[in-house]
Amino acid sequence: MVTIAVTSESADEPRIAVSPDTVKKFTALGAKVRIESGAGARSRFSDDAYRAAGAETVTRSEALHGADILLAVRRPSIEDVAALKPGAIVAAMIDPYGDRAALAALAGTGATVFSMEFMPRTTRAQSMDVLSSQANLAGYKAVIDGAAMFGQALPMMMTPAGTVPAAKAFIMGVGVAGLQAIATARRLGAQVTATDVRPATKEQVQSLGAKFIAVEDDEFKQAQTAAGYAKPMSAEYQVKQAELVAQHVKNQDLVVTTALIPGRPAPKLISRAMIESMKPGAVIVDLAAERGGNTELTEPGKTIETPNGVRIFAPLNLAGSIAVNASSLYAKNLLAFLDGTMFDKKEKTLAVNWDDELIKGTLVAKGGQIVHPNLQTQAS
Ligand code: NAD
What we know:
The chain is of the alpha/beta class. It has helices at 20-28, 47-52, 60-64, 78-82, 100-108, 130-150, 176-187, 200-207, 218-221, 235-249, 272-276, 323-341, 357-362; strands at residues 2-6, 31-36, 56-58, 69-74, 89-93, 112-115, 157-159, 162-164, 168-172, 191-195, 211-212, 254-257, 283-286, 303-305, 311-313, 343-344, 349-350, 363-366, 369-370.
């Protein structure tokens, strides 16, 4: 029988890699899920609910010992992986570009490691796309938290006592998180503008009822890679973009920044001078904090207030702050991936399809080596 281990994540990671719902499905596939007792508590999944779904709730070492598969949210420790069966499968958000030495050590355990962040963004893999499932929630929560910090009303209200003006929200970076941030800010009644360097986003922004602003020159027309991501922009473009942003941002009440370029530090889109031009009480929520942030003053993991009364909130794990939803969706992503690529449903055995493009796309380490093409150019 295929055994799947799930353990408690670190103190700063409230999510968990399986839900009672996915445990039920893994059990139906013929697997036995062994969960460290209490591991689901921060996502409101009780041991009772897991047991009712067919899991065993056990100690951490009992969960890990000799397991075929470890499912995790974050990159697991070498000790945990060493406790699994030799060559066991590990699937998690590995942070493939982070801490290379530790990644090499993880590979050195001989485990077969899959990085969920590398899931190809194809139609078939949509249900396995962890970046989308988590970014969507983060985009929502950024607006909710930002609106609470703003401390003023978002919608326009006409009352006998006078008119409350609509707040102005500006979303920078219109990927999955940005689109949800636009939709959420619109629902709350803010007047929303948004910007991106990929031309395809213009129509998406407009279809959500927001106004698109950007430097739409020749470089902008070429800014999207074949994979759908943004390219790093030239210094010349950055100057033009900064002029546009400087004019716009000074009148904004709530700014949500989400701009990322795969494998690189986040582009700096808001300078100190721009922040100094903003109104007291304005709030910036910087979702790019994990990759250094989109503003010059961002302190990842902290909220700072500038002398002119602008707060910059730079959360590192916003999806984790709605852990019930984040865990449920992440668990579904993992289930869809394993179900679609690793199980022989007739025999109820583990049968990894090594030729599958999704397996090839996400496989980071195997047989003691780091094997992913995106990770070959960096020094070990
Ligand atoms: P991301 O998190 O990598 O980046 C967020 C946004 O920041 C992107 O829209 C990007 O263009 C923008 N950005 C980067 N540099 C910028 C700059 N200097 N100024 C302004 N904006 C900048 O993006 P994501 O949310 O992962 O989405 C990336 C792409 O993948 C999109 O095209 C999206 O539609 C696509 N996608 C496809 C699928 C699928 O087909 N299965 C699923 C999810 C996302």
